[in-house]
Amino acid sequence: MKTKFLKLSLLALFIFTASCSSDDNNDNTVPAVETKKVSDLNASAGYTKFSFSENKVVTNDNWDIAFNTTTIIVNGGVKMTDAEPNRTGSGAASIVSGTFSSVTLYPAASAFAQDAATVYAIPKGSGKGWYNYDMNSHIVSPIAGKVFVIKTHDGKYAKLEILSYYKGAPATPDPLKAEDTGFYTFNFAYQANSTTTF
User: Fold this and answer.
1) 20: Cβ contacts below 8 Å, ≥ 6 apart
2) Is the pLDDT of residue 16 over 60?
């Protein structure tokens, strides 16, 4: 009887250990944060809403940022104009100086801002937010060394680097081709888990 009990106990212990080992391998795997590239997002005619978690343009309220010509808004705060989509989330933005790859930690909570009635979280205007406008060539160029850490509508984080404002991301854009203006190309990395790093 004791031998039978001992064998059953050892068998149960073995099954329990194997089961825990298998669960540990599945539960502790943290997905790597991948850099993704979006090309030619059309923001030339009204606000285009984008979701980092879905990696696509969306029409619902689960958007994180929205683009309209050179204006970028976040899904948090208040509307400045009636043309903007409603803010239904807790989104915010922080502007960080550095290269895209060098931004690996989230800024402090105090560094984030939401859109307000008089100023956007990502300021609008040449030299103030994400771009410079050249009065002679009439070209809009992303400011080098500006990375935007975005708090998403649902409290996750993404980092964003704008590469081009022109269709096809040409090295030398033609600002006189109005049909090619207002097409964003950008890199982003989305952090879906609760860590504070990219």
Assistant:
1) none
2) no
- Residues, the chain: 198
Helix (H) or strand (E) holding 150: strand 146-151
Q: What is the pTM (predicted TM-score) of this model?
A: 0.84
Sequence-distant (6+) residues with CB within 8 A of 191 are: 33, 156, 157, 158, 197, 198
**CA distances for 53 relative to 63, 99, 137, 146, 167, angstroms:** 9, 22, 37, 22, 24
- Taking only the tens place, the pLDDT of each residue in 65-92 is 999 999 999 999 999 999 999 999 999 9
From 62, 66, 53, select the one nearest 157 (Cα to Cα).
53
